[in-house]
Structures are given as C-alpha cells and as structure tokens.
Design a protein that fits this description.
The chain has one helix and 15 strands; from the N terminus they run H-E-E-E-E-E-E-E-E-E-E-E-E-E-E-E. The protein is mainly beta. It has a single domain (about 20-170), classed as Sandwich (Jelly Rolls), CATH 2.60.120. The model is unreliable at about 5-10 and about 10-20 (pLDDT under 50).
C-alpha cells in the first residue's frame, strides 16, 4: 500500500518536471562549406586532417585555415561562423535546447587564436543566446547580430555590421 503523501507527491513532481524548461544539450558543429585549405583536429588532438562539407565537430575541436582557406560552420541551430583565411579556432562550448517549439537556450563559445571569424546569430532569440568569440585579449559577445572578430599581431579587433556586441578585456 502506498502512503497518501507519496501518492499525492508523484503527480505534483510530474507536473513540476513538465514545467521546467528543457536543459541544453551539447551539440556538434557541422561544416557547412569549405574552400581551399581547411583542416580540423578532434578534442585534445594535435593531428589535423582535411575537413569536408557535412563533417561534425564536437566540443574541443580545432579548425585552421590556410592562406587560401575559408570554412563556414553551423555552431548551433540559428548560429554560424565563417572562419577566414590564415585563422585558427577551437570550439569551447556548444549547447542548444528547445521546449514546445521555442528555443530556450543557444550557447556557442569559440576561441579565436589567430585570424578572423565572422558570426551570424538569429536575432529573434537574443535573451536565450550566449554567443562569444574569445581571443587572447578578451571576449566579444552577441545575442543576435552579425559581427566579426580579428586577431592580428596579438591585437583584437571587433567590427559590428548589425546589432550590438559587448566586448571585454582579459586585462
């Protein structure tokens, strides 16, 4: 026999769980396009190999381009980056969640070691989007915009085409 308190508690807990937003799950980035020399290395690996359209890149993967290389990566549904020539990045964090057809969380953190990255983020969900490009000098973060970050000779440059970007220094 189930005690009365336990029998009343089960439906309440079930309702509570349904009311919670979906927790973000880690996602892989997907190579949308490549041109020229574009290579990737898995998490924790220093062994690079050519990347091709459709390849999946888990969190921790690195991408580098040659002087003729450009890659477009879909980092999460609703966000993408273009890695310019002579660039090197690492995918630090990628997560995405949806509940009832609504995006509840979009997270992408990209470490830019050198070169340039342009980002395009869905402007319809700025309050649930955490998109950051981290450089040796600081972080450029956006919620729904189009912007680019360049690391050149140890200096970081941020350009905004549309929307707003917050930049902060590591110093």
């Amino acid at each position: 026999m189930i005690p009365l308190a336990t029998s009343l508690l089960r439906p309440f807990c079930a309702l509570l769980l349904l009311a919670l937003p979906a927790l973000a799950a880690p996602v892989n980035a997907t190579v949308f396009s490549v041109s020229g020399s574009v290579e990737g290395a898995g998490p924790g690996s220093a062994s690079f190999h050519p990347l091709h359209k459709g390849d999946h890149l888990p969190i921790g993967s690195a991408v580098r381009t040659g002087d003729d290389g450009v890659a477009v990566l879909v980092t999460t549904p609703g966000s993408a980056i273009q890695v310019g020539n002579d660039s090197e990045i690492r995918l630090s964090d990628l997560a995405f969640a949806k509940a009832g057809g609504d995006v509840t969380q979009r997270e992408a953190h990209v470490q830019l070691t050198s070169g340039v990255v342009s980002a395009l983020i869905d402007p319809h969900t700025p309050k649930v989007t955490d998109f950051q490009i981290q450089t040796p000098e600081g972080v450029a973060a956006a919620r729904g915009t189009f912007y680019a970050v360049l690391v050149y000779k140890g200096k970081t440059y941020v350009g905004v085409k549309e929307g707003k970007v917050a930049a902060s220094s590591n110093k």
